[in-house]
Amino acid sequence: MALDALLKRCRAWKHRHLLGTKDLSAKDISLVLDVAEELASLKDIAPLKGRRLFNFFVEPSTRTKTSFSLAGRRLGAEIVDFSPASSSLTKGESLKDTARTIESMGVDFTVIRHGASGAPAFLSRLVHSSVINAGDGTNEHPTQALLDLYTMRQRLGKISGLRVALVGDILHSRVARSNLWALQKLGNEVTLVGPSTLVPHDLDAPVSHDFDRALRENDVVMMLRLQLERQQAGLFPSVGEYVHFFGLTRERLATLRNGTIIMHPGPMNRGLEISAEAADSSRSVILNQVTNGVAVRAAVLLLHSQVHA
Amino acid sequence: MILIKNCKPHDLLLDGAVLRKAGKGAEKAEQTVDAKGLVAVPGLVDMHVHFREPGREDKETIATGAAAAIAGGFTSVAVMANSGRVCDDAVGVVYVQAKSREAGGANVFAVGAVTKGLKGEELAELGKMSDAGAVAFSDDGMAITNSELMRRALEYSKMFRKPILAHCEDTALTKNFVMNEGPVSAKLGLRGYPNAAEAAMAARDCYLAALTGGHVHICHVSAKETVDVVRRAKKQGIRVTAEAAPHHLLLTDQTLVNYESKYKMNPPLRTQADVEALIEGVVDGTIDAIASDHAPHTSEEKEQELAACPNGIIGLETTLGVILSIKGIPFERAIDAMTAAPARILGLKGKGTLEEGADADVTLIDPKASWTVDPAAFKSKGRCTPYEKMKLTGRAAHVFVGGRQCS
């Protein structure tokens, strides 16, 4: 498909901001995946030439920030990077003022990563650019979910009617929430697996504490990063006990049914929630996820560029 | 002398600072107010407000707070102790009273802190504050987590016949909370404050009141379980009273779906089931009083991401309209909960009643007035209200304090 035809297709997108998959329809999600796929085959294009992307990462991140930079550059956009250590945020400037100041310099996309749930929603009421949520607190990380769905579709040939297990610290996971909303909208069956202290029972999804059974019953097993400070907070008794019940060990890897893929949003704790053998096995699509991140984020930028064009 | 005539339930004569039934002597009135279509009620009493002075006059002063009270129909308010300089001694109490007199708006009564500096460690000088005029004691804003200290506070305050106004929150269960804990907080990825953290502390305080014979008043009840706790305690004859805030009687945690700070307060907005249980509690008298928990903050503080912005909204200028707009609370009970009930709890003699010889504090209500909430028109310095642009029915038309017309 030529770029012009693709841009025409992008006009079906009606959202000014991407705050979460919560706000997207099944049609919206399919459009992102399709545009990402088309983009992957187009070379030497610069539809975002003259547009500026503000990489506003208040919370540290390497992969997501780099991924957005690459995605923006691929489409010809100019990237403005922000690092909190050298910024006026540390001098007491409010989130509101920092964002509006940068925007006054002419910015079309504000890609924000922030420790507080809802910070992108707050920002979207204050600025004129398109706000793209790159992860907010324990709320959402929509582009991660979109690239996860893209990877599932790529590997399994479809993105509906799948059985997906999200495993680990669901309570504190924005990746889990974004995946849950997106997968459910497309008609997949999502099970939340983990200890009862880390899996909320009121997320409108079935909960299971039996990881071994989940390994046998799902097409996708997505392992989530376990933060060690949760143990100090009393949410589980010890790392050993956690791995015993919910770690994707070498032994458990052998019990995976044929065709099931292993995913992880990264960064991984090798030897904790996931063993080296599982991470590096032929079932693992973890590096594909990283690769696909650029195409999916480029698609997101392209779609939003057509709304305020 | 002011004659108020043509109002329900009957004409009134304000003889200086004293209220008389209009009858003989009415012809001597220097001023007559035609109150046709209006309802005369005792000057409204809000037993739970925060005015921030001394110390944080940028948020609210006693003068702006007292003016906001008048605008909302309230002739008496009780200010909590957690201003910039904590009101934990007689000097603090006297300061509030002096500033109130100077302001000349509503009567502003001081609530003294239970513990020095609100630290929850040592009792403040409750006796000296009582002598200076404090009407009650409270560490509101902070929970008294030490049960032994709460026990002693209830035992000691009994000596001065003043209640302890309890902010019930088990803070170990509410660390870094932003909203109610439930399906909505799970979906929004926000830290929750479960109902149990309020109800468990309320139950503790009721049992401590039973143990000591002290009077505990449960502030800003928000959870349905807390209503049950208070109802059972009252049946057992425990000296417990309770209040609810208008926002907990109207709004739910669903309002937070867009992460707006005007819906962030402590205790948080709960669910529809809680709202209904609270209304039932107000109607059957389990919840004695309605109080605004008027908590002004600057716009800079509130215009932040949800996790960073402080708890609290203002309420004095919207309470009456909101309460009268809630279906299910009869007018007479609503007025009682904003007059006689708080006056009784705080021991305010001559307030909350239209009896012959009472203080000449009167509010004339236009129950049919329809109006739209406009924060720019507030007398309060605070602007953060969840009711902006909301259409309410019922408003104070005229307010008299100590026989003087204030609005």
Ordered list of secondary-structure elements with their pairings:
The complex is a heterodimer of chains A (309) and B (407).
Chain A: H1 3-10, H2 26-41, E1 52-57, H3 63-74, E2 78-82, H4 95-104, E3 109-114, H5 119-124, E4 130-136, H6 142-156, E5 163-167, H7 174-185, E6 189-193, E7 207-208, H8 211-217, E8 220-223, H9 229-232, H10 239-246, H11 250-253, E9 261-263, H12 276-279, H13 286-307
Parallel strand pairs in A: 1-2, 1-3, 3-4, 5-6, 5-8, 6-7, 8-9
Helix pairs in contact in A: 1-2, 2-6, 2-13, 3-13, 6-7, 6-13
Chain B: E1 2-5, E2 12-15, E3 18-21, E4 31-34, E5 39-42, E6 44-49, H1 62-72, E7 74-79, H2 90-103, E8 107-112, H3 126-132, E9 136-137, H4 147-157, E10 164-166, E11 179-180, H5 183-188, E12 192-193, H6 195-212, E13 216-218, H7 224-235, E14 240-244, H8 246-250, H9 272-283, E15 289-290, H10 299-302, H11 319-325, H12 331-337, H13 340-346, E16 362-372, E17 391-401, E18 404-405
Parallel strand pairs in B: 1-4, 6-7, 7-8, 8-9, 10-13, 11-12, 13-14, 14-15
Antiparallel strand pairs in B: 1-2, 2-3, 5-16, 16-17, 17-18
Helix pairs in contact in B: 1-2, 2-3, 4-6, 6-7, 7-9
Describe the protein:
The complex is a heterodimer of chains A (309) and B (407). Chain A has 309 residues and is α/β, with parallel strands linked by helices. Chain A is globular, with a radius of gyration of 19 Å. In chain A, strands 7-6-5-8-9 form a 5-stranded parallel β-sheet, sandwiched between helices. A 4-stranded parallel β-sheet of chain A has the order 2-1-3-4, with helices on both faces. Chain A has helices at residues 3-10, 26-41, 63-74, 95-104, 119-124, 142-156, 174-185, 211-217, 229-232, 239-246, 250-253, 276-279, 286-307, and strands spanning 52-57, 78-82, 109-114, 130-136, 163-167, 189-193, 207-208, 220-223, 261-263. With 407 residues, chain B is α/β, with parallel strands linked by helices. Chain B has helices spanning 62-72, 90-103, 126-132, 147-157, 183-188, 195-212, 224-235, 246-250, 272-283, 299-302, 319-325, 331-337, 340-346; strands at 2-5, 12-15, 18-21, 31-34, 39-42, 44-49, 74-79, 107-112, 136-137, 164-166, 179-180, 192-193, 216-218, 240-244, 289-290, 362-372, 391-401, 404-405. The mean pLDDT of chain B is 96.
